[in-house]
Amino acid sequence: MKPPQSSFPPVPHPDSRKAPGPDSHDADATHNSRRLPELHDLQRLIALGGSALDARVLAEVTDGADRYPLYALRLGNPDPYAPVLLLTGGIHGVERIGTQLVLTQLELLLARLPWDQGLQADLEHIRLVFCPLVNPAGMARGSRANANGVDLMRNAPHNADRPTSWLLSGHRIGTWLPWYRGALDQPMETESAALCDLVNAECATAPFCLSLDCHSGFGMRDRVWFPYAGSTQPLEQAAEVHALVELYEAANPYHRYLFEPQCHQYRTHGDLWDYLYHQHLQRQRGASNGPAVFLPLTLELGSWLWVRKNLRQITSFTGLFNPLVPHRQRRILRHHNTLFDFLIRATRSWQHWHPQGSDRDAQQQRAIQRWYQESGH
Asked: Residue 60 and residue 32: Cα distance in Å, rounded?
């Protein structure tokens, strides 16, 4: 596998700079590794990846005297016109398992890279982008929000059409309540803005961009959500989502996931992926070479099942979102290997399954029937 021939395209964030090596954080690294072992693991993988990984610090997040780098990593073809698979985690700091899942997948890829010719060939054609720890200060605190008390997944500057409830859907009352969106007259939080800048830069010229954002803390079953979180209207590219889901279900008929729009469960203000998808649609208006595809997915791990199997988890806030028993954590980290491998292959082969013409019309109709008519939403 050849190392990348160019660094990240410019990401319009004032704090963006080339990533330092793990040893450059001296005292900060020692302090952070105790409170935030996931950051230590991420920096270890950056060193392990060597020249194959293109790493960058998008921003530095501060929490009093503590400083945390917000990393993004690229693996594969640096061509801005290459298809992109983006993997993110840790937007909610308490959901450590999401970050751990992305880090596990990165470590598995790096272990395979020297000998796996199939993976090497995939990475000659596509680019993998990782942002495993979006909210490092929140994770160090063990809180859902960032250091400013803002829920990053309610922080985008747009409102839901039909919010579920005044609190869960996001509010501007104050940081003392969960799901706080931030003040109305304030810009997006550093972490939210950095993630949005990264996604927009990576997807700006890519013909196909697929993302998976890893979360936990809802339901008895693992779900894969797609927009909209703030509206019950069908996604404009629901045909592409439905075609992708049909591929997965045909290849994995006994899978564990429930695929659905997020609005089936609740509707929220300020969802980052709704916001990014709307920005994608704006870019595609009048596109001379045809509309590009952007499919933002969310993996929502059904952590209530872990609580049911081990009632001790309900005695801690962390246990509501993360497995506390080591063997269950290992099981969760390996359960999703098939999904991640499928997403890599679907990104490389997107032109072979991407519906067009009358086939796309039929897929859109089946998507509406499956997710918007039969469900009653």
From this structure: 13
Q: How many angstroms separate the CA atoms of 357 and 364, rounded?
A: 11
Q: Edge-to-edge strand order for the sheet containing 127-131?
A: 17-18, 53-63, 66-76, 127-131, 84-89, 208-216, 293-301, 223-226, 258-261
**Rg of the chain over CA atoms, in angstroms?**
20
- Asked if 214 and 131 count as a contact pair (C-beta separation under 8 A), the reply is no
Q: Which of 272, 230, 29, 42 is nearest to 146 (CA)?
A: 272
Give the residue, 11 or 333, on which the prediction is more confident. 333
Can you tell me the distance from the alpha carbon of 264 to that of 266, in angstroms, rounded to the nearest whole number?
Answer: 6
What's the mean pLDDT when you consider all of the chain? 90
pLDDT at 38 over 70: yes
> Quick one: tokens of 319?
């246990």
Q: Which H/E stretch holds residue 376?
A: none
Q: What phi, psi does 151 have (nearest 5°)? A: -80, 110
Assign residue 165 a region (left: φ > 0; alpha: ψ between -120 and 50; beta: otherwise).
beta
pTM for this predicted structure? 0.92
Report the candidate in 303, 295, 230 with the shortest Cα–Cα distance to residue 259: 295
Distances (CA, A) of 353 to 119, 171, 246: 20, 41, 10
Indicate the domain borders of the chain: 27-373
Q: What is the pLDDT of residues 81-106, one digit of tens each?
A: 999 999 999 999 999 999 999 999 99
C-alpha span between 74 and 9 (Å, rounded): 11
Q: What is the pLDDT of residues 192-251, one digit of tens each?
A: 999 999 999 999 999 999 999 999 988 889 999 999 999 999 999 999 999 999 999 999
Burial label for 20, CB within 10 Å (0-12, 13-18, 19+), is middle
Instruction: Please name the residues in contact with 242: beta carbons below 8 A apart, sequence gap of 6 or more.
Output: 363, 364, 366, 367, 370
Query: Which CATH fold topology does 27-373 show?
Result: Aminopeptidase (3.40.630)
Cα(283)–Cα(244) distance, rounded to whole angstroms?
23
